[in-house]
Write a structure and sequence with these properties.
The complex is a heterodimer of chains A (about 170) and B (about 110). With about 170 residues, chain A is α+β, with helices and mostly antiparallel strands. In chain A, about 35% of the residues lie in helices and about 35% in strands. Chain A has 2 domains: about 10-140, Nuclear Transport Factor 2, Chain: A, CATH 3.10.450; about 140-169. Chain B has helices spanning about 10-25, 50-65; strands at about 40-45, 45-50, 70-80, 80-90, 105-110. The longest helix of chain B has 14 residues, at about 50-65. The termini of chain B are far apart. Classes of the chains: A alpha+beta (about 170), B alpha+beta (about 110). The interface of A and B includes residues 133, 156, 157 and 160 of A.
Chain lengths: ~170, ~110
């Protein structure tokens, strides 16, 4: 059972570790007191401003990936800054995610978070993961180096060459 | 030039700060002694194993983006782990990158 509040007098690193425990219980409500209406969470595909928007983001994610799990690989904190290297696993069997209907595919992603924690409140979190890897795992983008992937690059280069010729003309 | 030699007796975070300063000179030579044949550098688009492969990765990047610059936004260390939040800027005016020929486009990227 995950506690609904972080350990008393938690350090910034302990607070962030607790946030991951809460997310792994597929809840976002216990986190609301630690976000304000101004907290900014920047994901690769969207920026959420305020606790309500961030909570909704995670709720949508739990609905899309019902067996979602974050493993915390490394944490490092210095002053207000807390960095986390995480590994996410799950299967897209639920609701659509990023406009993509469930395909049942397995997702395994590495990412990093940069939290800024001030006076026990999360001011911001900058989240990075490989969006192309994610899109490929969802089945949205062709595999790296596959025929459709190479065709896309070839077509893009042809467009660049054409534009270059037109500019010179 | 002072940057050619790493600062002595510094923390891991300070060593990494120096490594970014070196990358911003677009000459990776001073970094070579800090990579071994077993060093792994995992980029989103590919994993480089060993000093030679990592050096080639950066040389290709400098050739593609001749005005590449990486600014450190934030850094934190804990034992052997050093995290850097950086901001990369440059313009793709040089060699092809990832199989994409130069378009002259500006790139501005945040990384962990």
């Amino acid at each position: 059972m995950v506690t609904t509040s972080p350990p008393t007098e938690a350090s910034n690193v302990e607070l962030v570790r607790w946030v991951f425990d809460v997310l792994n219980s597929h809840q976002s409500r216990p986190l609301l007191p630690y976000w304000t209406t101004e907290t900014i969470e920047r994901f690769p595909q969207a920026t959420c401003v305020g606790g309500e928007a961030i909570a909704r983001y995670f709720e949508d994610l739990f609905t899309a990936v019902p067996d979602l799990h974050f493993r915390v690989d490394t944490v490092s904190g210095q002053g207000e800054d807390v960095f986390v290297h995480w590994h996410l696993t799950g299967r897209h069997t639920g609701a659509p995610s990023q406009g993509v209907d469930a395909t049942g595919r397995a997702i395994a992603l590495d990412g990093m978070d940069h939290f800024v924690v001030r006076d026990g409140i999360i001011v911001s979190n900058f989240v990075v993961f490989d969006q192309m890897q994610f899109a490929r795992q969802l089945g949205l983008l062709p595999a790296d180096g596959s025929l459709p992937d190479r065709a896309l690059r070839t077509a893009f280069n042809a467009k660049t060459k054409l534009l270059r010729l037109l500019r010179r003309a | 030039m002072a940057i050619a030699t790493p600062p002595a007796d510094v923390s891991n975070a300070e060593l990494i700060r120096w490594a970014f300063d070196v990358l911003n000179t677009r000459d990776i030579t001073p970094l070579r002694p800090f990579w071994t044949d077993a060093t792994i550098e995992r980029f989103p688009q590919g994993t480089c194993y060993g000093e030679a492969a990592i050096a080639r990765y950066f040389e290709d990047l400098f050739a593609a983006l001749p005005d590449l610059h990486i600014r450190i936004a934030s850094i934190a260390e804990h034992g052997e782990d050093v995290f850097v939040h950086w901001h990369l800027t440059g313009r793709h005016t040089g060699a092809p990158l990832e199989g994409i020929e130069a378009t002259g486009r500006a790139i501005a990227l945040d990384g962990p």
